[in-house]
Design brief:
Elements (H helix, E strand, L loop, with lengths): L7 H9 L10 H8 L4 H13 L3 E8 L6 E7 L6 H9 L4 E7 L5 E7 L2 H15 L4 E3 L3 E5 L24 H8 L2 H10 L9 H9 L3 H14 L2 E8 L8 E7 L6 H8 L5 E6 L11 E7 L2 H14 L7 E12 L21
Antiparallel strand pairs: 1-7, 2-4, 2-5, 3-4, 3-11, 6-9, 8-10, 8-11, 9-10
Amino acid sequence: MTRVRHTPLERSLLNDYQRGFPLEPHPFEVVAGQLATDEETVLGTLARLQDGGVISRIGPVFRPNTVGASTLAAVSVPESSLEEVAGYVSAFAEVNHNYEREHRFNLWFVVNAPTEARREAVLQGIAHATALEIMSLPLERDYYIDLGFEIDFTCDAVPRFPEPQAGRNSAEIHARLAGESAVDLVHALQAGLPLLHAPYAVLGSQIGLSEDVVLERIEGMLTAGIIKRFGVVVRHHELGYHANAMCVWDIGDGDVDELGRRLAEVPFVTLCYRRPRRMPHWPYNLFCMIHGKDRKTVLAQVEQLIEGFGLRGRRHDLLFSGRRFKQRGATFSRGDGPDPKCGNVAYG
């Protein structure tokens, strides 16, 4: 496997600023001071990494379902039509991730919408246009969702950080998001910070808020757990994590939360959450993601989970990713907009 070589400055920016990015009027100047360089060099390096696809953006990662309504969806597509159907699905602005996986359900995508009604409209539109049945698996409980990535592979693990607890109060979360200006801020933030000297002031000017208010509200959303982390959002494949596998388990309802919490503490587990079963075709309710350097490493890590947690004989499945049709941060449109395409997908 070819490893991308990064300069010391690039490694520092990619590794050390995935969270805790400065909430200061001139954050890139602060970063430059911390790294003993100048702001122009920091901005130029970040722009180069972003243009090269290594960085998706610098900004928030929102906790699922605190802003809008989301679901993981899967569909079984004839192999001859997979690219065509994937292209149709990816055309929806509400779809931010869209992957091929090695399974009968071979196309998996995430829908983020401003409302549950719009989310369901998107799913129904895809089902109608493709004449395929969509399996929707909304999040029921998250045990660990972070997706920070160590770039140097100093160990077969990703960085672990404590889950914020303040965000568990949904009433507080929605109170903090109430109001047109708060909605405007979410929309302004979702594309990431502009690579400019005073990015928070620029964002504020776009939506009629002062720089101080923008900073205060970002801090409030972090405290409430609406924003899980704020910083450099990297793209794992471009960093060398070429094996991406979703391991799913059929766990008794009385045991799933305890096992989910324990799996979430394993260093190489990058995501862990509970989703509903969809019988008879999908009996699994516990999901964990492993992002590794290669397939052999991931298979060995799954075996560690089986042995370490007494899961031998438990019904499970392992879905490696294939083609990546779409990957970007969630975007939250303002309303129930029209579908990006109309008509049916014609299979040739």
